[in-house]
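User: For documentation purposes, I need each entry recorded in a consistent format: the amino acid sequence on its own, followed directly by the corresponding structure tokens. There are two entries in this batch. Please keep commentary to a minimum and don't merge the entries.

Assistant: Recorded as requested. Entry 1:
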Amino acid sequence: MKYFSGNFRAWLLLSICLFLDCRYLHGQVQRQNYKLQTIYVSSSKGNDNYDGLTEDKPLKTIHSALKKNKKGVNLRLKCGDVFFENISGMSNSIIESYGKGDKPVLCGFKILKNPDAWQADSIKGVWRLDLSNETDFAGYPLEYASDKLCFNDIGCIYDSRKDKIYGHLVKSKKALRNNGDFFTSSLYKRKDVAFRYLYLRYDQHPKALGNICLSTYNHGISNMDRCVIRNIAIIGFARHGICGINYTQIQNCDIDIIGGSIQVGYQNWVRYGNGIECWVLSYLISDNTISHCSISRTYDCGATIQGKGKGLQNPCRIRFVHNKFIYCRQAFEHFLSDTEGKDVDYVDCEFSNNLCFMMGRNQFDSSEARDADLLSYDKKNKNILISNNIFYGAPYYCGKAFGILKGNIVYMYKGDYLNHYHGQKNYPIIYANDEKSIETYRRRTHDDSRIYILDKESDFDRKMKKKLLARIAYQPIRLKK
């Protein structure tokens, strides 16, 4: 597009800065009291009796590679391999790929290897699957689960053959009304009750679905300090894709089919799950840069900077730049809520130069009023820069407080909202109808972005979607046997 060619110098400068930032962080990692130890891991060629120090003698599991040490490690995962494991608690380390082929995949799916395990329930058209019988499943094992009681708090059912998500989780067995609806447990307030059964409404015996995948109650990557994560794919985790990061670079990673678990212990029945979450705490969360990643089909938002609690610190230099967000509920969410009333703000944080395509269509079949490009629970305007992004095919901003909006290009359908806030009764919604509505929105938000109102399925709409899809080059993450 002309817009990006006109900003080529700015793009080039930012790319150089990101490269230098990565070089700097890599150097910081290596200048510790310990030297980086390179460990190779291959689920297809490895053996946990090897030492893992060369490509010819890789370990088989990440679990074995990190059993003794999670500091100062250069963890290298073989391209083309699928690892039914997650990664947590590393510091001053690098996680990356080696070899040729598709990115190595961290996968949270447990896979039904015995489709005959489904049993007819007492309710006609409802089927029951005993998730506790581990002999019926392959994929992510219970032994690696961080929370074994909640391990089967399933976020979605995935048919990998057809690339189809069954994501409509209901609150009770009686609420299983439509084909593909599923239910797990109503005991979400109790942390001491294990999730055991999955109930599915299906118009024929579910064995017809074959070896379905079930996303489990885990994070893909979590609690990482001063790390570099690059060239990795993450899929099938029913909590967050990546969370709990600090002073960390994430580059060229693919994240798909994330979230949907019930938030156990919360006062209300709530599902959740973000692609990459930067959670703000009472100590400094700083210097996270997420760039050139593809984040898709998340139950909640693709990217967040958010926090709620006592004594929050201002998040500093957290940047989401040059990423692609496809079919998430929202592309970006931000809020800072100090429970003691402390005034907290973003310091040099941004969401810029990203491409966001068709938010609100996350395939979890659970549409909400907050489905939009941007979501905020901030109570007053904050210094979070949201600039030079392309947003296509969704409502624009859900929130009553806004960031600094500059230079975005927004394509949205006539009748969708420019601004709405579902958390306040009688909030004055601004719908995208004409230039007058756009001007009303600008006065409220001081947003200088270019906004185009489209007729759905018009020739222009179809051409633009085709053009953007070609640019996104979106492909589902492949799960090889």
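Entry 2:
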Amino acid sequence: MHDPAVMPARRQGPREFSLPPRPTHRLRITLIVSAVAVFTAATCLPAIGGIELDLGAIARNWRNGAEKLMQLLQPNLAFLPRTWGPMLETLQMALVGAVISAAISVPVTLWAAAPTNPNPWTRGAVRTVVNMIRAVPDLVYATVLVAMLGVGALPGVTTLILFNIGIVAKLVSEAIDASDHRYMEAGRAAGGTQFQINRATALPQVWPLFANQWLYTLELNVRISAILGIVGAGGIGRLLDERRGFYAYSDVSVIILEILVVVIAIEVLSNVLRRRLV
């Protein structure tokens, strides 16, 4: 027989549990947003050492900007054939810089990551050099190299190589540091040297990262080459600076449109290659 005292307890349905209310951080978020807004506003006050942000100049000079914009909206397509040679030079600079930096960035990246370079002294030295390369703006590199090597594509290519190495080595080495390394531990347990472990286990794992960053730097190189030419580092930027100096904004508009088309085409090609390689 069943105990009648137990029967009512069995007839009871499942007990419902309710989650506690989710804590809100409205006060903290409000304080943070307010602090950022106050700090940003304070940096625009010259009286306390901030920058002199003259918003009234926009209202006073908007007519000049409107005139330049109207000139840019009227591209001189007859000038387009003259841009093909400099644009080809820009593409060559971008490709050569990307390829050379890709070859150099592989050992540099492996030396800068802790799993692929356990020696703290050499790893610290390589990371210091990479950080120094990244700290110098590309225009500074181009200006100094133009003074050293002369006007032309060589200082531009050298600048792109340094710029690309800084990006690839930094991003890929950090990705290696953050990934799982049990396959490398298995290589050490098998008695392999660090070089053998890097070649047989680390590189196959990070090739997609390298490929992704190399394609990204190729996209950047086209845009940067157009800027480097302004200081004499070759490419379409030299022609852009020349036409701007003559206030030929209709020619400048053609150059800008051509750069835009080339950048979009390279981005589409890079996306296709990423899907096949990554």
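Summary note for entry 2:
The chain has twelve helices and no strands.
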